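Q: Hi! First time doing this. I have a protein sequence and I read that you can turn it into a structure. Is that right? Here it is:
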Amino acid sequence: MTETHYNPAPRAHPGLHVLALFEGLKGFLALIAAASLEVLGPQPLRNVISGLIARFNLDPDHGTLPSLLNAINPGAVHLAVAVVTLYAIWRLVEAWGLWRAKAWASWLGCVGTAAYLPLDLYALYHHPGWHTWLVLAINLAVVAILARDLLKRRH
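A: Yes, that's right. Below is the predicted 3D structure, encoded as structure tokens:
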């Protein structure tokens, strides 16, 4: 019977540290966004959307922007704050785990980033440009680094 040895805590390679810093930055920025949204409330968002409607002479009663304007209320803002806060916590926990070379963090990052790949391909098909190629390349690099880490743990 052949045993597969699993190394649960290899020494973190620089790629994991770079990803940990990147994920930590995303988590920190998401916390700032959530806190700002909670402090400011819905009115600044409503003002921006009203300004866009006026600037582009859009129909204030029909269309996407007026629908969005009507959907922005304190309850929707609180829901958005909750979702962004959960996202921030996810990214910060993942960053901590990647920095400490935890296998669960590599799995979390690999699966989470791979989930974006179909959306990246969709964006590339409908909006080809250097920015969509860049996002796809970054996400592929993240998946490759984390998959490599997971494969190294199997041997």
